[in-house]
Please model this.
Amino acid sequence: QVQLVESGGGLVQAGDSLRLSCAASGFTFSSHFMGWFRQAPGKEREFVAAINLRGVPTYYGDSVKGRFTISRDNAKNTVYLQMNSLALEDTALYYCAVGTKLIPGRSVDDYGYWGQGTQVTISS
Model:
């Protein structure tokens, strides 16, 4: 069965960096685009980034463009999210997800499988 296990979250200060990882199993990783979403308390799940099958192209939400970088290692079945210049508004539960359409999407409807999430908390 499909499994997605996120890691790398934590409590950091504004301006710091974090690198999230998502280890995937149970499907042909290199045949699917992957995405990262986040959800803060009381808010809808928000698109963060997506990456195509071989690592390019990549797509970003407006709020993280220029600060976050998505990448993947198909040999390790892992997708990463490097987050720099973290701000208070980046506090959320971060999820990775498996794309189920032909091209990367920004909607939750473009993804069919989700991990449990990893918490990222930014303090001032």
User: Anything to note?
Assistant: The two ends are 40 Å apart (CA to CA). The mean pLDDT is 96.
